[in-house]
Structure formats: C-alpha cells, structure tokens
Request: fold
Amino acid sequence: MRIAHQIRTLRVEQSLSVDDLALKGGFDPAALRRLENGEEAPTLEVIETLAAVLRVPLYRLFYDGDTPPPFPNLRPLVTMRELLRETSQRSKIGRLCEYVYGVLLGL
Reply:
C-alpha cells in the first residue's frame, strides 16, 4: 500500500520512532504500526493528522517527491457551486475529481 510506505518513509526521514509519531498525532502506537505495515487503511482524518504532524502537504502521503505528478488540463474550481451547475453526470464526476485534487494541493 503506497500510503503505508510513505508514512514510514516520512517518519524515518524525520528521525521519528513509531512511538514519537503516535504521541504527536494522538494515535495508539500499535494502530500506527498496523497502518505502516499495510494491515489497516487510514481514514481521511488520520491522513490529515499525519500530514500535519509530519509537516507535509497531503499529496506527499500519496506520491514520492516534492511535487505531485502532473495532470494535463486540470484546473482548480473556484467553488463547489460551479460543480453543481454542470449538466451531465460525466461532467460532474470529472469536475468533482478536479475539485478534490485541488483541495489536496491546497489550490
């Protein structure tokens, strides 16, 4: 599981033990070990907390490197209202993906 690998990699890069990261994030160390071993999938709340504690943008938990991979023709949405104005279901799904990606990048 990519996110499990990224959590461990970022933790080790910052010279944090599992216990240190668990304490800073308010997690049970055993639960954090299960996440790092790919035995459990983290919730969005856990992902957000880990990113904050590790002081990295959310996308760093999903991708290697300092920047996410490029997505052609992707633009951030101004508001959710713009998404709701779309007429076709296909357009709404595409725009929702753009919106979520923009939120993850902080656009």
Summary: Residues 13 and 54 are 10 Å apart (CA to CA). The chain has two domains: 2-61, 70-107. The mean pLDDT is 81. The two ends are 26 Å apart (CA to CA).
